[in-house]
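Let us practice reading a record.
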Amino acid sequence: MSRIKNCFSRLKTEGRKALIPYVTAGDSDPKVTVPLMHTMVKAGADIIELGVPFSDPMADGPVIQRAAERALEHNTSLNDVLAMVVEFRQRDSDTPVVLMGYLNPVEVMGYSVFAEAAAKAGIDGVLTVDLPPEEAGELVSALESQQIDPIFLLAPTSNDERIKLICNAASGYVYYVAVKGVTGAGNLDVKAVAEKMKQIRQHTDLPVGVGFGIKDAKSAAAVAAVADAVVVGSALVQKVEQAAGQHGKINADIAELLGQMRVGMDA
């Protein structure tokens, strides 16, 4: 059983929902990333989404765009991100890690080479934001040959046909983007999310994670009531930005916010 499947299975038995924090690898300094991953697990994270910095992060709002810029100032590459996961795995062999990013760096490396390197590093899932399932066959095959879950995005505008197509291509979990627009934008409408969950679940037994617009314990708890997982990104990346250069403060601030979300979700 994959780490992702095992994680959701365990949480279901416990009657709990997955907390999935996102941070950009290499932000605000490559030395921050691995200790921060361990901090997030200790604070209650079940799965980590690790962003691969890219020069044109088109799905992301200003907060995560700036994070990518800070990481790229340190020349953080896809190979560097994989090396960070190797280091993380020296102390944590259980927590699933999902790479989230854009197709270009993967394409440059080559699908098979990337999939083999990712598996060797201990990656459990890959979410390429700008790769639709119609064009993903080659990468999906490469990932599945290494027992890595391909993860895809669903949007508020996804109709039944699209939901079915995306869910059939995905494994591990599917990621529902709760607001129209980029990361960190828009107001979360939990009633609308709950309605969409009913529609999505008609087409898949995979766990459904919800992200975009989750900022605090209250919004995390509200989403946890209707979804299988809560994904939080911009609110955490903002903490990194506000405490840039202060490694201890970055860890403390993110641990505090995630801890509050964990308590809210478990209440």
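A brief commentary: DSSP finds twelve helices and nine strands in the chain.
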